[in-house]
Amino acid sequence: MTATPALGSAARSMLPPGPIITLVYRIPPERRAALFTFLREAIPFYERHGGTRVGLYESADDPGLLLELVCYADEASYAEDQERVDHDPDMRAMLDRF
Description:
The protein is α+β, with helices and mostly antiparallel strands and 98 residues long. The protein is built from three helices and four strands; from the N terminus they run E-E-H-E-E-H-H.
């Protein structure tokens, strides 16, 4: 699979050395624009505490097939993010939007 950055060509620094969560999913063509609009707002929200980087890649061979990487600086950053996912109302509200 050939993949290209799905949210623009802005250069990103190397991935952090900690845990990486990999999500692979398919988005129907009619929801693609809405997903990208949501993620342009959501990714900075997810990354705002530091220690977390999110990347989204779309298959050049199979449009709509997406690879999302959530990368953490270290185990502590991962644990802190999981705590936010489980207990932070703002995080829950953002995750529930799409």
